[in-house]
Design goal:
single chain; 384 residues; alpha/beta; Nitrilase/N-carbamoyl-D-aminoacid amidohydrolase; 8-stranded mixed beta sheet; 5-stranded mixed beta sheet; 10 helices; 15 strands; 28% helix; binds N-(aminocarbonyl)-beta-alanine; EC 3.5.1.6; C-N_Hydrolase; Beta-ureidopropionase; cytoplasm; C-N_Hydrolase_sf
Amino acid sequence: MATPRLDSLERSLQRHLPPEEFAEVRRLLYGEAVSPLDLPSVAVSAAAKSRFELKGYRFGAELEQLRQPRIVRVGLVQNKIPLPTEAPVAEQKTALHKRIEEIVEVAAMCGVNVVCFQEAWTMPFAFCTREKLPWTEFAESAEDGPTTRFCQELAKKHNMVVVSPVLERDFAHGETLWNTAVVISNSGVVLGKSRKNHIPRIGDFNESTYYMEGDRGHPVFQTQFGKIAVNICFGRHHPLNWLLYSLNGAEIIFNPSATIGKLSESMWPIEARNAAIANHCFTCAINRVGTEIYPNAFTSGDGGEAHHDLGYFYGSSYVAAPDGSRTPELSHTQDGLLVAEMDLNLCRQIGDQWNFKMTGRYEMYAKELAAAVQPNFVPNIIKE
Ligand SMILES: NC(=O)NCCC(=O)O
């Protein structure tokens, strides 16, 4: 079974480089340094007691004359599954609820306004198996399933917006399954849901066996703490997916994910960060941690041996800002809560500097894309 060889890129660089060189390497890799956020000591002790990493950072912005700063704290949660995949479904789900509840308690102590959990957080990422039972039993109604009701209580208790990515069973449409993020307002009301638009067809990510591409477009949720959107996992490889959330006005785009070392670890630091730069918004990349072992071996359709696990999920959750700066990542191996404070005024400030929305030439792309999807499309290749 493969395991991560590094717990933190940032800590490794810091360990091995002289301080001045480290500062310059970090500037080149991560942009201008973000400041550490002072977190209450009760939160630090509670996180240590519950054995998860707690990190906090702050992104600044210029003061404006006509607008007050719009300060928001987001919380990104990454976690292992607490029970083995063979445990009864209800017990696995309850254990996950309990784990998240204790992490959200700490998020509340840190003044988090919007919290987001990892993709399909109420279950093991069992789609690699291609088996239906028991995994499809983890699916629930986005509107009033037990997990949504649980998150509504958390939202009300902590006055916190909760983004809860789950396997959805859509009871209004033939009990079909979807990969969905439910957005719950800090009042406890379900604001709506966003569905995963791009389904992987790579390696053991056999998700197309379970659900279809999302049919909801690119909704943006107006919350008390800013306009947020959710681009679920594989959507991060698709620049147009980020763009459409941004065109609908998203200031923070969450990217709850489940991805593994051998597949994407070197792409991970680039994609959400690039999206923050290209779209003048904040992006929050969240990945689960640990290795999940399944009772029945499955093959990858590549002639290789059957195996019981998908590989290790490398965590490394981080937040990126529109100016290209970013926080260091959470651990590659441990459960964690990343708290990031941001002034949403930075989105317009960077937009006014770089003008990507103004220079975007969307009309030209709209025309060329409309032509490219026609059956009679002829690629514009000029030959001698
Ligand atoms: N959950 C998911 O879509 N994973 C696919 C692999 C990846 O995007 O890195």
